[in-house]
Amino acid sequence: MTMPSTAPSRRRLRLSALAAVVAAGALLAGNVNSAEAVPPEVISRWDNEIVHSNALSPGFSGLLGTGSYTITAKLYAENTGASAIDYLCTIGTGPNSDGDITEVTLAPHSRHSIFLNVVHSYPSTGPLSFGCSKPAGASQVLMKQVKITAVKVNTLDNQPFG
To answer: Is the dihedral of CA 87, 92, 96, 98 positive or negative?
Structure first.
């Protein structure tokens, strides 16, 4: 004799879990009512290999429209030389404004992942810049798989830990 199972079906559990994830995402994004949410606007730029020969890299600069954004940049930097290189990458939203810095030491003939993140609210169209620097005369650095992505969001709450 087999007893009927009292456990919910797997399908029902998966649907309940999916609904919980969607609801939690809406709450975290500040969108309690999904009908009020405005779809995010995603702006992305990329280059699979940039040769960084001089002290300053051939960076990126552009403008973003009015609104709040979360902006990320990522790449991996490959030292082509036999000496270590102090390497500094920055992303910024204008003079005296929000930005991020990542500083690494690239060992000889090695590569290192670099990730930057900044959130910023532009009251009007404003600048976004990204670039890296190294000592003058240092070996070439290959900047590979460079991706910069800005996601326009409905709301932004940017506060220090506290």
So the answer is: negative
Residues 88, 102 contacting (CB under 8 angstroms): yes
* Amino acid 19: pLDDT: 44
96: CB partners within 8 A, 6+ apart:
none
pTM to 2 decimal places = 0.75
Q: Are 138 and 48 in contact (CB under 8 A)?
A: no
Q: Tell me, what amino acid is at 34? A: S
Residues 66 and 45: beta-carbon distance below 8 Å = no
In this prediction, residue 21 carries a pLDDT of 43
Q: Are 19 and 98 in contact (CB under 8 A)?
A: no
Residues 6+ apart with CB under 8 A from 119: 68, 69, 70, 71, 98, 156, 158
Block mean pLDDT (10 aa), the chain, length 162: 48 44 47 65 95 92 95 98 98 94 98 97 96 96 97 94 89
CA-based end-to-end distance of the chain: 60
Cα distances from 47 to residues 6, 37, 98, 109, 117, in angstroms, run 55, 32, 24, 21, 18
Q: For residue 96, give the amino acid letter.
A: N
Cross-strand bridge partners of residue 85: 106
Q: Which residues contact 53 (CB under 8 A, 6 or more apart)?
A: 140
